[in-house]
């Protein structure tokens, strides 16, 4: 009796094992995840994108046919600058005289070529002309000797002259204002070469 029960149990085990090994309803254990049939390992995640250019790569190149230089209208470094007006047309000297017994004001504008314009107290033209070359040369000499760059803007000196004239000079960007008693010899020489402050 025991032998028959043992034989039945062995037979039942054989039937169960046969059913599990058949392809009808069972599932077969495949290769482990992440391994290929050839034994090599494969990536389990999605494919990674290829790396971009390295951080040291240069920037985008200009499109073909487009110049890579400075934009139109801009001057390249080191390009020559157009020269300014000639010395003949530049302002050589401006002198304004005010005061005196009549208390009038007038201004003389002298250009580098010796041409001059007189303005009245309301800055209206009141005469014009041109200095002779030798007189212009003496004026330039006197202005150089005056040394405007080192003159005080308001020179002091000499006794006050009541009802005297006051002069305001502008030469090469330097301004000097002085009463007639404070004029330096060079400034007096420059005034001697100027046309009259009032029409004669």
Keywords:
alpha+beta, 6 strands, globular
Briefly characterize the structure:
11% of the residues are buried. Helix content is 21%, strand content 20%. The protein has helices at residues 2-21, 133-146, 185-192; strands at residues 91-99, 106-111, 115-119, 125-130, 165-171, 174-179.
Describe this structure in words.
This protein is an alpha+beta fold and 200 residues long. It is built from three helices and six strands. Helix 2 (133-146) runs antiparallel to helix 3. It starts with a helix and ends in an 8-residue tail after the last helix.
Describe the secondary-structure layout.
Layout (H helix, E strand, L loop, with lengths): L1 H20 L69 E9 L6 E6 L3 E5 L5 E6 L2 H14 L18 E7 L2 E6 L5 H8 L8
The major β-sheet equals: 6 strands, antiparallel
- The percent range for strand residues is 15-25%
The oligomerization state is single chain
**What shape does the CA trace take?**
globular
Order of helices and strands: HEEEEHEEH
Euclidean distance between termini CA atoms = 165 Å
Helix percent reads 10-25%
Structural class: alpha+beta
Q: Which residue ranges are poorly predicted, with pLDDT under 50 across at least 5 consecutive positions?
A: 15-47, 49-60, 69-86
* Lateral arrangement of strands in the main beta sheet: 4-3-2-1-5-6
The number of distinct β-strands equals: 6
Tally of helical runs? 3
What gyration radius follows from the Cα positions, in whole Å?
A: 53 Å
Overall pLDDT confidence: 72
